[in-house]
Amino acid sequence: MQIVILTGAGVSAESGLGTFRDQGGIWSRYRLEDVATPEGFACNPALVHTFYNARRASLRAAEPNAAHHALAELEQRHAGRCLVVTQNVDDLHTRAGSRNVLHMHGELQKACCASCGNRWRAADQMHADDACPACGALACRPDVVWFGEDVRSMDRILGSVAQADLFVLIGTSATVYPAAGLMQLARDQGAQTLELNLEASAAASVADRLLLGPATEVVPRWVAEWCRTNGLE
Ligand code: BJW
What we know:
Helix content: 25-40%
Bound molecules: ligand BJW
Strand order of the largest sheet: 3-2-1-7-8-9
Number of helices: 10
Largest sheet: 6 strands, parallel
């Protein structure tokens, strides 16, 4: 039995990290064209660094919540493969103990050089005039995936989705591709599909089962149910 879990901002919402498209979310305070596109970064790198420096500070103050911990426990108990594919750039799944995690939109705590491709742990504060420690270019950026850029680990993600027996979508609006299409893909290839969300996502019509509620409640409840019905208590 292979399980693929796709998570989005909703799984980290109760850890104090904002979602993007909910009321009062990140995109109600910033224009995504300004802070989450290569063109926005080229136009105003200082603004983009300020945006991500603040997000990094929020992440340092955040702790994994009951949903992250429940998913780590599921991975530990489940005998087959259990992969978390996250759109989140935070490290809360890993800090909760999940070991099999793919960050398809990159990682907030990493920096990269747009000139030579070098990657390193980001300083708390990044600046537009930082030099790459490898090549010296003034082309340092957060190691995250902006609109129009290729997402990470897509071959591994597609391979895992193709082999999945169960696909679980958690806390994402399913409006950003290619992540938004993964549940449909999983179902087309024979997986059972489940959505755990505060509100039904744009992909909810392809979920075999939909459980609504805050992640810290529905995810631990579902993991406990799954362990019980699969004799993993
Ligand atoms: C709770 C909760 C609680 C709340 N408990 N739940 C036309 C058609 C199709 C595709 C395209 C198109 N034009 C362009 C594209 C491609 C584009 C795209 O999808 N655009 C759409 C807007 C249409 N995609 C891309 O460009 C991607 N790359 C790509 O496709 O490459 C190939 C390509 C290149 C060029 C052209 C075409 C193809 C890259 C996407 C990169 C996204 N990057 C961001 C920023 C990352 C860094 C950062 O964090 O700053 O990723 S945008 C932002 O959205 C972030 C998120 O990971 C992503 C998804 O957001 P998420 O997680 O779903 O959050 P929300 O806020 O939307 O939803 C929150 C959910 O939680 C809701 O459901 C709530 O109900 C729930 N919730 N509280 C449980 N307590």
